[in-house]
Here is the input.
Amino acid sequence: MSKNQLVNTHDHSKPTSPHLQIYRWNISSITSIMHRLTGVGLYFSILIIAWFIVYYTYSFGSISDQKSCECTTTLILKALFFGAIIFVIFSLYYHFCNGIRHLFWDIGKGFDLKKARITGYLVLLTSLILTITTIATTIYLKLF
Amino acid sequence: MKKIEIAPSTKNGFHHWLCQRVSAVALIPLIIWLVLSLIEIALDPEGYLPVFFAYPFNAFMSILFFSTSLYHGSLGMRVIIEDYVNNKAKVHFYIMLVNFFSITTVTAVVLAILKLHLIN
Here is the structure.
């Protein structure tokens, strides 16, 4: 009975594969889902950056003429913007490192459970350190 | 008990897998170039940013970067859409939407980079 119900829930459609709620979290599933999330984030941020370059090209010289005011909305928008930038920086480093890990898996290296766990933690640690270094250097050099 | 109906294979899964890996390998040097040139821009924003695309190497690498990353991105978005959307018509619609946005964005940004490259 229960098997029948399971099969008949979505007729003629394939089952949705990576269930997020019913499995216990471990380092492999966390790195996997973060790879997907950062990938989607990077895709949309590249779209935004590309269209910003297009906008900058065809409105040359008029882009820095906007007056800045210290209203609450501007401050909130600025905070959101910096949050988004930190997310994009982290996403770039993380997707880069974990992508290299995936490429090593594809040539058949580091696929056993112990090594996969170690490299998972290593990828998380490396991308966090790189993100913190980038932000610290930017603040230290007073670039923004 | 009713048998689960599995969608027939479209026979292009391996090609998709291979294209994703090849574009991933191609993106490694492009990302390193991107990070290095962002550091260069951050060190001298007023002087370097307006003439950034005037350098042939920067224009070349940025066009390669945008085309490769959006290609890799649309391949990845296709996998995610196929995994999480379970309505077949919606899957095809979203994949076409992603491809549409990728192609239009690549065309627009390549034109913009060429314009910035040629006017400087």
